[in-house]
Specification:
This protein has about 400 residues and is mostly helical. The chain has one domain. The longest helix is centred in the first third of the chain and has 26 residues, at about 45-70. α2 packs across α7 (about 175-195) and α11 (about 260-280) runs antiparallel to α12 (about 295-320). The protein is about 70% helix and about 0% strand. The two termini are about 25 Å apart. The chain is built from 15 helices and no strands.
């Protein structure tokens, strides 16, 4: 542990962010299909089908450590509840805004798609930037935040898609990546606040959401359809289950402390085997499908998450080898900025009309893969430089 952080958690978070940027940038018409998402009705999964669950898992794993620190500093249950709701709502808002960038109708909105998106991201950074001098320049920073809120309100009211759904205004849809993280984080954080470091109760909470996921996949939750547009991510169970699997790992790791590293590895390995076995057993009734968020997919991904974390934990925390991850560890320490910033670059490239990402036009898979990996690494480095300059999103 360095500077109060767990190296293996930061590194796995950084790895998943790097891979998210990588798979999001790939030209899937050229590269092998196993790097992308499988079709919704196909029984199987590619790399892209695991990456997001990997991030959900590590987000859940961070919860026990983050809230233990807050509690040690004197935060009450009410304080922590407000923190959870504020952070979750922030993720939901940003996720919905990002989801709607592609729906902007320039003629009805009066602003081009790319300009609307760039102004939105600018406002997001004004509102949620972690200003380094926040104690000394309270009024200035408050002014920046209020300006960002005002700009967001203006953009939201001006937004028009020209589509019939939701009368052409913003839609929640599938909530976007950040929105789904927000719902999953909310579930896991409240579970931890209620059950604290009880491993058995945390496992029971994870199993509850797995049961919801099974019932939803079996189409037995139709009676909850009236509230599904608002609570669908929670009711479907898949995202909270995967996040809570990470919380289970975090609670077990936290309870282990600095002793019993091999007992921790043993227990995490048992969880991995059980989850993988359950996933393949359920495959008899539910195909492995990320786009359908089937329980078999959630179980298999969670099992893989435990295996990946065990490997990283052994290398970094047991054998103290961390230099190998130096080029993507900053992404784990600054995940939100690292995830959002590439979208800003994409919109700047589109608005300029200059074709800069030539590797995407190549017909050679190796050239496209190498180009997207270099792109992902550069985005991580830029986010690290932004952090040094005092530009870093923190919810």
């Amino acid at each position: 542990m360095s500077s109060g952080r767990v190296a293996s958690i930061d590194i796995m978070r950084g790895l998943t962010i790097l891979l998210m940027l990588f798979v999001n940038d790939l030209n899937m018409d050229v590269v092998p299909a196993w790097l992308g998402h499988t079709d919704a009705d196909h029984d199987g999964m590619g790399l892209a089908d695991w990456v997001f669950p990997g991030f959900l898992f590590i987000a859940g794993m961070s919860v026990p450590f983050a809230f233990s620190k807050r509690i040690a500093l004197g935060s009450t249950s009410a304080d922590n509840s407000r923190h959870i709701l504020t952070r979750s709502m922030s993720l939901l808002i940003i996720g919905i805004l990002m989801l709607n960038t592609g729906r902007v109708n320039p003629e009805l909105t009066g602003i081009g798609k790319n300009l609307w998106a760039l102004l939105m991201y600018f406002a997001v950074f004004l509102v949620w930037n972690d200003y380094p001098d926040k104690e000394q320049k309270i009024y200035r920073n408050t002014g920046f935040r209020l300006a960002g809120i005002g700009l967001l309100i203006l953009l939201i009211f001006r937004f028009r898609s020209g589509l019939p759904e939701n009368d052409g205004s913003l839609i929640a849809g599938w909530w976007g990546i950040l929105g789904q993280i927000g719902w999953g984080y909310m579930a896991a954080a409240f579970v931890y606040i209620i059950f604290r470091d009880s491993l058995l109760k945390t496992i029971a909470a994870a199993l509850f959401f797995l049961a919801l996921n099974i019932l939803s996949a079996a189409q037995l939750t139709g009676f909850m359809d009236p509230v599904r547009p608002f609570l669908g991510i929670i009711l479907d169970g898949s995202v909270p289950f995967i996040v809570l699997c990470g919380t289970v790992a975090g609670v077990r790791m936290k309870n282990a402390g600095n002793k019993g590293q091999w007992y921790l590895v043993r227990d995490l390995a048992v969880f991995a085997v059980v989850l993988l076995a359950a996933g393949f057993i359920l495959r008899r009734w539910f195909i492995i499908s990320k786009l359908q968020a089937t329980p078999s997919w959630g179980l298999v991904c969670s099992g893989i998450n435990f295996v990946v974390f065990i490997i990283i934990y052994l290398i970094t925390d047991v054998y103290n080898r961390t230099k190998w991850a130096a080029f993507f560890k900053p992404a784990g320490e600054n995940p939100l900025t690292t995830y959002i910033f590439p979208a800003i670059i994409y919109h700047l490239i589109q608005i300029s009309g200059i074709q800069l990402l030539y590797y995407k036009q190549s017909e050679l898979p190796i050239a496209v893969i190498a180009g997207s990996m270099v792109w992902a690494v550069i985005m991580v480095w830029i986010a690290a430089l932004l952090k040094r300059a005092g530009i870093v999103l923190k919810l």
